[in-house]
Amino acid sequence: MSDHAIRSELGQFLKSRRNALTPAAVGLPEDGTHRRVPGLRREEVAQLASISVQYYTRVEQGRLSASAPVLTVLAEVLRLADDQRNYLFGLAGRSNALPRRADQQKIRPQTRRLLDALEFPAIILGRRMDILAWNPLAAALLTDFSQIPAKQRNYARLVFSDSEMRSRYANWESVAPECVAFLRMEAAQTPNDPRLSELVGELSINDAHFRRWWAAHNVASQTSGIKKIRHPLVGELILDWETLTVTTDPSQQLVVWSAEPGTPSHEGLTFLASWAAQEDQQSHSRPPLSGLFFSEPGLAEDNET
């Protein structure tokens, strides 16, 4: 991504945050005049930030790079959350970033053993939300990842494009925007990642929801929450999910779904685990590994960046 493109992206983000605020939200009185645009005017942002209107206009139009002190003030004026602030400074600080080296995303044996040992559905995500590994229960819960070509195994892509996985999420309207917001964060951190640009372009072309949410410039890195799953075998499941960062490679995240013991959702997961274990044993000619769950072999090695 060129310097101009990054400045333009930063300006569009500032504009989206400006449009999301009202004068009352920042302590300005309503003047009673008709507003041609939603949110704050550029003049009001400049006034609150103690900078000239001309300076702010050039920053928002992508014609000028703002200094760190100015960005700090703008983040306060626009009421940016921590994730939004990180996104803003990530864009501003990476205008000279080099293209990412095309190395493989490999999972350490120790991380794979941890995945193998989990009794809950779990997957390991890499850069761009690429799915690097999973256990059988995760495949039974969401979709059969082994039937998807390695270079297509991307969580965001499947949430938008895989009909089976999309139908499983009863709260898809909240799950899908979370994916878009996460990809927005990644775009600021790695603006020169060609595969991320390719993914965003593909989803923008194929899905109107993605286009609208991407244009909204919402950014977030949510690491926990609740997912509602509609499963054809066990019915509705209400699951907690947690994301754990792999400390030896912070680009990899272990995502685990669980249910509170004694609940119908926990009973449903237990039944699904038994079914998945039987299916897994029948589909493999080799003896099963010790324990009930184990990850699908050979994925990370053929999934290049």
UniProtKB/TrEMBL annotation:
<dbReference type="Pfam" id="PF13560">
    <property type="entry name" value="HTH_31"/>
</dbReference>
<feature type="domain" description="HTH cro/C1-type">
    <location>
        <begin position="39"/>
        <end position="84"/>
    </location>
</feature>
<feature type="region of interest" description="Disordered">
    <location>
        <begin position="277"/>
        <end position="305"/>
    </location>
</feature>
<dbReference type="InterPro" id="IPR041413">
    <property type="entry name" value="MLTR_LBD"/>
</dbReference>
<dbReference type="Pfam" id="PF17765">
    <property type="entry name" value="MLTR_LBD"/>
</dbReference>
<dbReference type="InterPro" id="IPR010982">
    <property type="entry name" value="Lambda_DNA-bd_dom_sf"/>
</dbReference>
<dbReference type="GO" id="GO:0003677">
    <property type="term" value="F:DNA binding"/>
</dbReference>
<dbReference type="InterPro" id="IPR001387">
    <property type="entry name" value="Cro/C1-type_HTH"/>
</dbReference>
<protein>
    <submittedName>
        <fullName>Transcriptional regulator</fullName>
    </submittedName>
</protein>
